[in-house]
Specification:
- The structure is a single chain.
- By secondary structure, the chain is α+β, with helices and mostly antiparallel strands.
- 65% of the residues lie in helices and 8% in strands.
- The protein has 2 domains: 182 residues, no CATH class; 127 residues, 2-Layer Sandwich (Heat Shock Protein 90).
- Strands 1-2-3-5-4 form a 5-stranded mixed beta sheet, with helices on one face.
- Helix 7 runs parallel beside helix 9, helix 7 crosses helix 11 and helix 11 packs antiparallel against helix 12.
- This is histidine kinase.
């Protein structure tokens, strides 16, 4: 399991400037060892300098203890190491200080300058001490060995910690960059999943609205005609048995048509239900898979429109059904009929159907005019009824007030214009214009 950048930041629990307690323990241990080393090296330094030994020991303790702040102030540690180089002390202090400096985020020119100063200091001190040992006769070597040993010692003390520190610092920065990138990707995937869920919820709402419109159009129109025919059947059952038989047959036809349309709609819902079924389980999946699954669900949640929906070719039959129910309907068509996109034809049909249903509900017996106009880039339709003929103008059918809203939503979804309202003569008019493509 990897640790993200946010978890890495929250994992800080060390004192002062340390991120972890073990880092503080490590630095305290290094500082104690360095202080003891410098204190031991302070004794010969005090003898050579002619100062009290206690002063040399205290000086070494203070200088070695500077290693405690190597993570916070690496420059100060290196400067102290350079300062105590002439006293032949601070071997561990110099190595660890150079490593900490190279591993920090300081500019390379600063790291190179301080490392160069440390290397030159070690070179000079080593060269002088070897020359002094040769002069005293403590060491008998050739003159060529002094510069070689000095250069080797200087490079051996400074180059390895600097190179190691540069490598560790680069690796640390790479890991931090990867953590930040992982955090960014995680946030993006989470945002993508949230947007996909919002899109899926919006799509489900749109689908519920579409299904409600379809159910309203199918049930309201067919049942309204069935109620009108049933009322006519009741009125003429004893007076004109033949007409009563015809009305009964019409009621049966209307019921069968309504059942057929409802069956087709439910079949489409069953076919689209597989794509919306949610998955449940105890196993965990990656966040990327969650985002992809949510996006896929959003793209599948919208159920396709029925392949065989109503069309403008059935307008004559629709008007004939209303006429058979006793409505006086005048149908006029302008322009030459041509095929349109299925959603355009279905919407135009439903507008006329719902307008005629409203006439049956609220203005029974009123003369109605249905006009269609096939234009170059659009199709226009208008259903207008005259004022109802006084008493009994209403069929007593319930109305939910959703018919006009549904028509406006259908037309607006296709980029069309829908207008409805009472006429000056006391009737009612429904008009719609839908783009042809």
């Amino acid at each position: 399991m990897t640790t993200t950048g946010e978890d890495h930041v929250t994992a800080r629990g060390g004192p002062w400037w340390w991120e972890r307690r073990r880092s503080a323990v490590l630095d305290v241990g290094l500082a104690v060892v360095s202080a003891l080393e410098c204190a031991a090296e302070g004794v010969p330094f005090a003898w050579e300098a002619g100062i009290p030994v206690a002063v040399g020991v205290v000086f070494g303790l203070v200088a070695g203890a500077v290693l405690l702040v190597r993570r916070r102030w690496p420059i100060a540690v290196v400067l102290v190491a350079i300062a105590v180089t002439p006293a032949a002390m601070g071997f561990l202090l110099g190595i660890v200080g150079l490593y900490s400096l190279a591993a920090s985020d300081l500019p390379r020119r600063i790291i190179g300058s301080l490392a160069g100063m440390q290397s030159v200091g070690v070179l000079i001190v080593m060269f002088v001490r070897l020359r002094q040992d040769i002069a005293r006769g403590d060491v008998e070597v050739g003159d060529w060995l002094v510069p070689f040993a000095s250069v080797t010692m200087a490079l051996g003390v400074t180059a390895p910690p600097v190179l190691l520190g540069l490598y560790v610092g680069a690796r640390r920065r790479l890991m931090e960059s990867l953590r930040e990138r992982a955090d960014s990707l995680e946030r993006e995937l989470q945002l993508l999943a949230e947007r996909a869920e919002e899109r899926a919820e919006w799509a489900r709402g749109e689908e519920r609205t579409r299904i409600a419109r379809e159910m309203h159009d199918v049930v309201a129109h067919r049942v309204s005609l069935m109620v009108v025919h049933a009322a006519a059947l009741q009125a003429v059952a004893r007076k004109d048995p033949e007409k009563a038989v015809r009305n009964a047959a019409l009621v049966g036809d209307m019921g069968r048509q309504a059942l057929t349309e409802l069956r087709e709609m439910l079949g489409v819902l069953r076919a689209g239900g597989d794509g919306v079924r949610s998955r449940a389980g105890g196993s965990s999946v990656p966040l990327a898979a969650v985002g992809a699954a949510a996006a896929a669900a959003a793209s599948r949640v919208v159920v396709e429109e029925p392949a065989e929906g109503p069309s403008l070719a059935e307008i004559d039959e629709l008007v004939g059904q209303s006429a058979a129910a006793g409505m006086v309907v005048d149908l006029s068509v302008e322009g030459e009929y041509r095929s349109y996109a299925p959603e355009v034809e279905a919407t135009a049909y439903r507008v006329v159907q719902e307008a005629l249903t409203n006439v049956h509900k609220h203005a029974a017996g009123a003369k109605t005019y249905v006009r269609l106009a096939h234009r170059v880039s659009e199709i226009a339709m208008q259903v207008e009824n005259e004022p109802p003929s006084g008493v009994g103008s209403s069929a007593g059918l319930p109305s939910g007030g959703n018919g006009l809203v549904g028509m406006r939503e259908r037309v607006s979804a296709l980029g069309g214009v829908f207008v409805s309202g009472p006429t000056d003569a006391g009737g009612f008019r429904v008009s719609a214009v839908i783009p042809a493509s």
